[in-house]
């Protein structure tokens, strides 16, 4: 009698019973979709092949659970938002970033390269992509005011960052990035409290500047 086939792996579910306020969830989703378009456009300036971004999800989780699912080692980038400089984390697998910088150097391939440490030149190219990404983030942000996003440096162990208290609730916006290679996941991790305050503050500011739009 043949053994049963092994069960398929179940993707981690970031969701928890609580969820973002509907208006915040909607605005963040709009921001996420716009970021996909603008990030792809800005990155295209540096690559021969088209690299596409797609939004996949907006979920919430405990910070410890969310960070535990990120690649280690990987490539993370600290992006700060607003006057309070609330930290957010963009995270990618290292083979994905090696494929992207390879494309910038004319070394395109349909397969992801083997995982390895980045050279100094490759790390500089990743930093350039992150600068383009934060500009896309600023341009994509809905509302009358810029989010004031800034790059705060690269993290080679994004799973191990200590910017979010372990029990804090965070928002995880999921993406897929594809090019000559198959689609690969990417993550944007934000403090739930900070993004709610930021979005509600933006909405309040917009209502003050457009009083006729109030119901």
Main sheet overview? 6 strands, antiparallel
Secondary-structure class: alpha+beta
Counted by DSSP, the helix tally is 5
Strand order of the largest sheet: 1-5-6-3-2-4
Radius of gyration: 18 Å
Proportion of strand residues: 15-25%
Strand count: 6
Q: Choose one word for the global shape.
A: globular
Distance from N terminus to C terminus (CA atoms, Å) equals: 69 Å
N-to-C SSE string, H for helix and E for strand: HEHEEHHEEEH
Helix content: 25-40%
How would you sum up this structure, described in words?
The chain is of the alpha+beta class. The protein has helices spanning 22-44, 63-68, 94-104, 120-140, 192-209; strands at residues 52-62, 74-81, 86-93, 150-155, 169-178, 184-191. 37% of the residues lie in helices and 24% in strands. A hairpin with a 4-residue loop joins strand 2 (74-81) and strand 3. Helix 1 (22-44) crosses helix 4. It is globular, with a radius of gyration of 18 Å.
